[in-house]
Hints:
Helix content: 25-40%
Number of helices: 4
Structural class: alpha+beta
Number of strands: 7
Strand content: 25-35%
Amino acid sequence: MxxxxxxxxxxxxxxxxxxxxxxxxxxxxxxxxxKLSYTYRTDMRIPxxxxxTTLQVICTVEGIxxxxxxxxxxxxxxxxxxxxxxxxxxxxxxGRGEKVVAPLSLQAAISSQVMDMRIISVKSRVAxxxxxxx
Length: 134
């Protein structure tokens, strides 16, 4: 076993040169850059501020890979601020005056502010108390 590992190590050193490693790195960067130019669909948390409440809304989004990667790396870049006047509400199930945001109105409001990706659907159930709607 030890001889086999030694043979692999010596063979690897003989076959690889600095020029080969540089070309391998360049080819990886070019391949990765090409892959990031494709269109992808994924679930993503988007920070949304409705009135005084800031929420992380889970959305299914579609967009170019590089833009999706930037959004995942820096989620605060796309803070979405929505006025409660632009949303449709449904009564909540608790009976305490809670209101549930209609998913399609939330999707439309987020889509109007996030331009570099398409919002396919909203997966989060957003319920707000009457005090949060100020």
